[in-house]
Specification:
The structure is a single chain. By secondary structure, this protein is an alpha/beta fold. It contains nine helices and ten strands. The strands form two sheets. It has a six-stranded mixed sheet with strand order 6-7-8-3-9-10, with helices on both faces. Strands 2-1-4-5 form a four-stranded antiparallel sheet, covered by helices on one side. α3 (91-101) runs parallel beside α5 (135-147) and α4 (106-119) runs antiparallel to α5. The radius of gyration is 19 Å and the shape is globular. The relative contact order is 0.17. Mean pLDDT is 90; it is low at 240-253. The structure holds adenosine-5'-triphosphate (ATP). Residues 11, 14, 16, 34, 36-42 line the site of adenosine-5'-triphosphate.
Length: 253
Amino acid sequence: MLRIENLSKAYGEKVAVDNLSLHIMPGEIYGFIGHNGAGKTTTLKACCGILHFDKGEIFIDGISVKANPLECKKQIAYIPDNPDLYEFLTGIQYLNFIADIFGISASERKEKINEYSELFELKANLAQTISSYSHGMKQKLAVISALIHSPKLILMDEPFVGLDPKASHKLKLLMRKICDEGGAFFFSTHILEVAEKLCDKVAIIKDGKLVVTGTMSEVMGNTSIDDVFLGLEEKDALSIIKGTNSIPLGFDV
Ligand code: ATP
């Protein structure tokens, strides 16, 4: 579904993503974890075709993002960490605008908008302008708009931030349902508990480099995702203090 091969991206001198490769299969919920500035957003934006990258290739369902960005965009949805919506539109105008872009028929969009706005309890607010929405309501609208064209792959940057516990729970159930129907999710999160409970696989990125990836049980072993992630961070801190880089972690970094 998503194949990232040797992706590298620098902003001037700063290497944000360094030779990263990942493969996400249909049906998988794939979590992307890393410290602030690790390169998660850069990777996600490159996958969506909204950020040019220096080296490597990205394929969505076998189609190159570089060679055929429009075809790729038809297959995917991207929910950024801070949705930038057209605030002067009402919620329903925005959803219709997105449905127009993807050429969704009137009956299909009506069905989808009804289903998802009811699910996320936003139906009563769709006639209001987006500028009157709270952060969480904007996040819900961004999620609904992302699902209108039934994307095969959904990329999300910190999707649970701003959502209330009920909406978070519903989103998690919906993610599993979409994956059961053959879709896939690749999303970044700092909430390690969510990653541990929700994800089939996880990738940990550090300073632009992929350091660990695999199924949750492969990555965690007998520990927890917190232990693995904090162990990696700890390793750096201890290395600095001790002047060594050989603290055993139980796996290769
Ligand atoms: P966070 O968890 O804080 O959202 P992230 O893992 O998503 O972080 P990125 O936003 O991908 O990290 O940033 C990776 C690196 O690239 C950081 O060092 C950041 O400062 C740098 N960077 C990101 N965007 C730009 C930009 N437009 N110009 C220059 N440097 C950038």
